[in-house]
Fold this sequence. Notes:
The protein has helices spanning 2-58, 64-92, 121-137; strands at 94-96, 103-105. The chain is mainly alpha-helical. It folds into two domains: 1-92; 96-138, no CATH class. Strands 1-2 form a two-stranded antiparallel sheet. The radius of gyration is 26 Å and the shape is rod-shaped. It binds zinc ion.
Amino acid sequence: xxxxxxxxxxxxxxxxxxxxxxxxxxxxxxxxxxxxxxxxxxxxxxxxxxxxxxxxxxxxxxxxxxxxxxxxxxxxxxxxxxxxxxxxxxxxxxxxxxxxxxxxxxxxxxxxxxxxxxxxxxxxxxxxxxxxxxxxxx
Length: 138
Ligand SMILES: [Zn+2]
């Protein structure tokens, strides 16, 4: 019974860890997909702007009113892309706790939310040992 429970807990743990890893991957890739969508919107806006300017010129219509709308749409898309790129950069600089999934600063050793040791702490802990040695020498 104990062995079965142990196996079950191990299996569950492995699945949970997988799910959380996949979840954090999806978040960044979702943002990347959104950026790609916005870039395609941007292309469409530029194309429509070009067509509008062409039609206005051809029919001797003042294009200013029409082009203003496209210019503000395009500016709006640029702002959204910049915002998403900032978010992506931030996510890449964060360490996601595999226990509670909260984002921690890149140089954090322990999770700020659940207090468990973070994956990036391996290098940090060997540094700590060096510190201990220098203290011992003193
Ligand atoms: Zn945590």
